[in-house]
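thread: overnight batch results

M.L. [08:02]
morning all. the overnight job finished for the chain we discussed friday. pasting input first so we're all looking at the same thing
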Amino acid sequence: MTNANNAKLMRITTRALGGNVPNEIPLTSGKGNQFSVVVEGTAGRVLGGSGQPYMLEIVALDITAGANPHSEANHFTQRRLERFDAAHGWPDKVSIFTITLNDLAAVEGHLFRCYATLTSANQIISFVESPLFLLYKGDLGVGTPTVLWRDTYERQ
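M.L. [08:03]
and the structure it wrote out:
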């Protein structure tokens, strides 16, 4: 819970485009090469209705490649300039970003994390990190991925 004059990002997850459930493999057959990144936050009663401007930004890290995967073809980094008010979803904010992959081959089979940052002029700063997720499209004739590492890890 935040105090009346503060805001905090609570979580960031990925899911299939148009889906409602967080998903570690967010690309699905029939949805094109897009998926959603969902950022959730909360603000105190005073700040949440203040109209104070802020910036909400998402970025990704391609764990496999060790780099930010944003490119002209694949739009992972996105920024929104909004205000703390009901029109922008506060005090309980849910913001959905659509990631479009025009060059799926450059990132398919890679592990990722997304990060969200919230900054404003009155020094409200908050950030969150997503769980790992895999960009894999099962309808490309490659077969279904086997997640052996998780099973092995959970047994230890």
